[in-house]
Amino acid sequence: MRVRISAMMAGIIIAATAVVAQAVFAFSPPQAYGICLVCHARDLLSQLGRLVFNQPFALSEIARNGPVLTVVGILAGAFIGAITSKEWKPKWVESKTFSFAIGFVVAVLALIISGCPIRLLLRTGYGELNALLGVIFLILGSVAGTYLLKRKRIKRP
Amino acid sequence: MSVGLTSIIIGLIIGYVAQRSRLCLVGGFRDYILVKDKYLLKGFISLLLTAIVLFFIFGAVFHSIQDYPQFYKAGNTLTVDQIYKECNCSRSAQFIAPTSGGFLVNWQAIQFNYLMLFTIIGAFLIGLLSVLGNGCPLRQHVKAASGNKSSWLYLLGFYCGIMFYQLFLSGFINQLFS
């Protein structure tokens, strides 16, 4: 069976889930924290590090009450979606060291900003001026990246 | 509800929806410039607008969100806040009430600090590198769950980057921003 969801609907559902989680279910002391891939992963790794190594890693205030398992949920939900519509195809697509290096640099940059791109959009809705600046420069950066990509393709024989 | 249960339900919903619709936030601009396709751009704009509208409804009408700027109330001023010392979750420079200068933003009270500089440079680099690496972080998580083995290496680099930040950079960045 193949359920189709359009991108506009997906945007509305994701934003509504994140805002309702903060307003109704009290996901609160870091504000606008409903969905963020890098912040929740940092919380999960810090909790594991505290259990295993007994070192004081930094945690956010909501993570002192229980384990933050959003990343596990995202991987599980996408896996269910891929299996039920027969889109599971394990294969190597891009170059290996390139993907590793880009993942490393994007994670460090996203933690300095304290938001992956989704959390920047949520913080803009919350009314924060730094996040509005971040969204504008995210758009400019992706446009610049596309022009770099175009030049690389034309030069290749 | 406890934190663990809420977070797993949020993750399941978002993961399923993002896989079925192949949503990518930086892919919208890449597709529009290369092949004039507006499908992913609609997802980006709808996420932004829904966040603004729902935060307004829940914050200004129902008052169920803490520290939401109540700019409709006259005589109410908010100041530029400090950043949380421990984990760099920022809470700074909200829109300020219109009692002293400006319509929605009090322009004189905003100071240029290191957080603004790093936000500008960092967001630009995130946009650039995500387009070169074939996806924003959400799209790479979804691709990894669909079997793309290169995205497994992307996720490995992602978690190594987080551990590197926690061990070596965290204290330095907190001191720089306070």
Structural class of chain A: mainly alpha
Give the distance, in angstroms, between the N- and C-terminal Cα atoms of chain A.
Answer: 42 Å
- Beta strand % of chain A: under 5%
Proportion of residues in helical segments of chain A: 55-70%
- Beta-strand portion of chain B reads under 5%
Give the terminus-to-terminus CA distance of chain B: 34 Å
The number of helical segments of chain B is 6
Q: Largest inter-chain interface? A: A-B, 123 and 113 residues
- Principal-axes geometry of chain A comes out as globular
Q: How many whole angstroms does the radius of gyration of chain B measure?
A: 20 Å
| Helix content estimate of chain B | 55-70%
Residue windows where pLDDT falls under 50 for at least 5 positions of chain A: none
Strand tally of chain B is: 0
Mean pLDDT of chain B: 75
Question: What is this structure's SSE topology?
Answer:
The complex is a heterodimer of chains A (157) and B (178).
Chain A: H1 7-23, H2 37-53, H3 70-84, H4 96-113, H5 117-126, H6 129-155
Chain B: H1 3-21, H2 27-35, H3 39-61, H4 114-132, H5 137-145, H6 149-177
Helix pairs in contact in B: 2-3, 5-6
